[in-house]
Amino acid sequence: MASAMAKRLDGKTIVVTGASSGIGRSTAKEFARTSPKNLKLIVTARRLDSLNELAQEIKQEVGEGVKVLPVKLDVSSPEEIKNFVPSLPAEFQEIDVLVNNAGLVRGVAKAPEIEQEDINVMFSTNVNGLIGMTQAVLPIFKKRSDGGRGDIINIGSIAGREPYPGGSIYCATKAAVKSFTEALRKELIATRIRIIEVDPGQVETEFSVVRFYGDKAKADAVYSGCEPLTPDDIAEVVVFAAGRRENVVIADTLIFPSHQASPTAMHKK
Ligand SMILES: NC(=O)c1ccc[n+]([C@@H]2O[C@H](COP(=O)([O-])OP(=O)(O)OC[C@H]3O[C@@H](n4cnc5c(N)ncnc54)[C@H](OP(=O)(O)O)[C@@H]3O)[C@@H](O)[C@H]2O)c1
Asked: What is the CA(94)–ligand 1 centre distance, in A?
């Protein structure tokens, strides 16, 4: 017998950005596991080979009930975003859920030494990309009854609530995500469109490797003596939020591992 959550997700079309790694990858898998009989998953990122591997893994784990469409998409490119929905096969165009997960941090520099390139990449991906994807998908939602229906799930961060030294730009991008998310929820108050934000604390993914420009030893040091969250921990929250009854909006969540109470309040063994 299917769970209530599996029944609610049955038949949905779900887009996950940044699905080639970490939280996005886990989120795609968790949706597939939760509703394995009839689901369409559009998994996007810049690394198409990783998306193809993910599609294979999902097929092996849950079978043919979940149709996975890997799409190469750089969310920092307004041009690619513009072409995204129109170039989807017709059977994938009726999107029900958008998980705006693609994002990154670059460096730990403090002003005035922050590289312009790093500032541009973080804003164009974390902020402009998330806004662009939202604007691309909302017209699909708004055509539906009751003023529109569908879910936008934005991955924010504790960094958007509590900025820390060496993370000023990343924190500013995640604060922008929070502002955009909250304004959007108010703009869509007369619809059935749910605007959901999930804010993780420390999660072990490729996030720190990207932050340190590929230096794995520096990335590993961030997690030494700690037990960070896994990407599956966040994926479960995302799928839970999408799987609620239509009138229930998990507007906001903040998820820490037990050793963390803020970006800088960390207990190291
Ligand atoms: N890990 C943490 O501690 C933590 C905490 C709070 C919030 N978050 C947030 O969680 C989200 C996922 O990060 P993660 O921890 O899972 O890191 P990750 O393992 O590095 O994954 C990041 C994903 O974003 C994608 N991405 C980056 N730039 C992109 C672009 N221009 N266009 C399309 N996709 C892009 C990457 O794919 P490609 O490289 O293939 O494009 C990758 O799939 C981010 O928004 C991050 O800010 C993470």
From this structure: 25
To the query of whether residue 174 is one of the catalytic residues in this protein, the response is yes
55 has pLDDT over 90: yes
Atom number of ligand 1 nearest to Cα 76: 31
Using one digit for the tens of pLDDT, what is the confidence trace for 9-29?
Answer: 999 999 999 999 999 999 999
Query: Cα(157) to centroid of ligand 1, in Å?
Result: 11
pLDDT of residue 92: 98
Kindly report, residue by residue over 96-135, the tens digit of the pLDDT: 999 999 999 999 999 999 999 999 999 999 999 999 999 9
Enumerate the domain spans of the chain. 4-255
Does the bond joining 231 to the residue before it have cis omega, within 30 degrees of 0?
A: no
40 belongs to the catalytic site: no
Instruction: Find the catalytic residue in 170, 178, 216, 268.
Output: 170
Distance, in Å, from the CA atom of 119 to the CA atom of 106, rounded to the nearest integer, reads: 8
Residue 53 CB neighbour total at 10 angstroms: 14
Beta partners for residue 199, in sequence order: 254
Give CATH for domain 4-255. 3.40.50.720
